[in-house]
Automatic annotation (TrEMBL):
Catalytic activity: sarcosine + O2 + H2O = formaldehyde + glycine + H2O2
Family that this chain belongs to: Belongs to the MSOX/MTOX family.
Gene3D superfamilies: D-Amino Acid Oxidase, subunit A, domain 2, FAD/NAD(P)-binding domain
Protein's name according to its UniProt entry: sarcosine oxidasee (formaldehyde-forming)
Cofactor(s) annotated in UniProt: FAD
Length: 413
């Protein structure tokens, strides 16, 4: 096996948003970072590609708002450093049946996190958002000004460019197959499918939907991370209504709680189209995906939602005009896994996965956390106990929640 080049302080495996932000944060701290990616950089086979991701600070769990707010600051900082924008600020609107427990918890978490929230009933909403959102009976909504749309592929490219600028080494077509202790060098080695071996002090695994496979291979540990194949839908806005759904007209990013959980962004990426999608997917093997079928159950429930919630005649609800495939990496409780791998690797290998369909917005904060874990062995300013690996040994369902699941699993494609 060929031993390659230099010795690195931190070897990051997987160049989606989490790995790219981590490589940047490591390099920013003056340490030597290597980022290895299995496919081409900016490929469309994982979770971090595409046209839009929502950033919002409203969460039913009370531990995400601080990560979102810190990420907001870091998104701005990175944009200033690179000199272009990847985030368009909008307001964010959550809605759903007034009795929905998740929505109630999301609203309750605003004040303690200093998030300015305006709770609106049906009649108060009437004049807002150009009148195109119409709450059904017994529904409420909450508007906050912490919202926005991030361009994912452009954002990953931005962090990769910034990492290179700060001295990181980035290599694609490098599928990591194994990791071991470098007894002679006192660190770890990482070997690839094509026969290279890299050496370093620490390693961070950010391999998204491949996390369960790689960690099993490397350590024998079976992480409960289930890859889901999901589908994003774009719908045609009817002629004359296009401007009403634009960020310029104040249309927000939104999430609609309940069954189905539906989310969307203002019309931006494709003129005349709006993204409205269902939060869910089919369990899959990320290396053997069925691209052809299976999106019906994720599309059909969106049709009545459009008919019920949007101004009649504003969006063509027959069927979506465009669909895009993507991957979620679900944990049983929908919370991230961010921890040291432990076992023979102790604190030398850090794992970060199971971002469960809602991690992108927090990529910059996660990158900061992972860099600190790798370099300092600890993290300042964030409580990470809810992201521990060990929680699944205590209870296979993970963190206890007092509200219902938001992501729908569909077993039959
Ligand atoms: C349709 C959709 C909509 C979403 N909407 C939102 C949203 O609105 N807001 C939000 O915050 N989040 C959202 N998310 C979630 C968010 O996109 C993900 O949480 C995030 O992109 C996960 O990033 P990651 O870096 O962990 O994984 P990935 O982007 O998949 O990166 C992992 C990388 O590791 C590489 N890799 C795998 N195995 C190896 C190996 N052995 N060696 C080397 N490299 C390897 C992969 O090729 C991949 O590039 C959405 C996700 C999807 C799919």
């Amino acid at each position: 096996m060929e031993v390659c080049g230099d010795w690195f302080d931190v070897i990051v495996v997987g160049a989606g948003i989490m790995g790219s932000c981590t490589a940047y944060e490591v390099a920013k701290r003056g340490h030597k970072a290597l980022l290895l990616e299995k496919f081409d950089f900016l490929h469309h086979l994982g979770s971090s590609h595409g046209e839009s991701r929502t950033i919002r600070a409203t969460y039913p769990e009370d531990y995400y708002a601080s990560m979102v707010l810190e990420s907001y600051r870091l998104w701005e900082e990175a944009q200033s450093e690179i000199g272009y924008r990847v985030l368009t600020r909008t307001s964010h609107f959550d809605m759903g049946p007034a009795a929905n427990k998740s929505l109630q918890c999301a609203i309750a978490n605003c004040e303690p996190n200093s998030i300015n929230a305006r709770i609106l009933d049906r009649s108060q909403l009437h004049d807002m958002f150009s009148g195109v959102i119409q709450l059904p009976e017994q529904w409420i909504g909450v508007e906050t000004d912490v919202g926005g749309v991030i361009k994912p592929t452009k954002a990953v490219a931005m962090f990769q460019a910034l990492a290179i600028r700060r001295g990181a080494v980035l290599r694609d077509h490098m599928e990591v197959k194994d990791i071991g202790r470098d007894e002679a060098g006192g660190g770890i080695w990482v070997s690839t499918a094509s026969g290279e071996r890299f050496r370093g002090r620490k390693c961070v695994l950010t391999v998204g939907a491949w996390m369960r496979k790689l960690v099993k291979e490397v350590s024998g540990l079976d992480l409960p991370i289930q890859p889901l194949h999901t589908t994003v839908c774009y719908w045609k806005i009817k002629e004359g209504h296009e401007d009403e759904f634009s960020p310029k007209a104040g249309f927000p990013t939104f999430a609609s709680y309940g069954e189905p959980y539906v989310y969307g962004t203002p019309s931006m990426e494709f003129p005349g189209l709006i993204k409205i999608a269902m939060h869910g997917g089919h369990p899959c093997d990320p290396d053997r995906r069925d691209w052809a079928s299976g999106s019906g159950v994720l599309v059909d429930p969106v049709v009545p939602w459009i008919e019920q919630v949007l101004l009649p005649g504003s969006v063509e609800a027959g069927k979506p005009v465009m669909k895009q495939a993507c991957l979620y990496s679900m944990t049983p409780d929908g919370d991230f896994i961010i921890d040291f791998l432990g076992g023979e690797f102790g604190k030398d290998v850090v794992v970060a996965g199971g971002f469960s369909g809602h991690g992108f917005k927090m990529g910059p904060a996660v990158g900061r956390i992972l860099a600190e874990m790798a370099i300092d062995g600890k993290v300042a300013g964030f409580e990470l106990k809810q992201f521990r690996l060990g929680r699944f040994e205590e209870d296979p369902k993970g963190n206890a929640k007092e509200f219902e699941d938001q992501v729908a699993f569909h077993v039959n494609p």
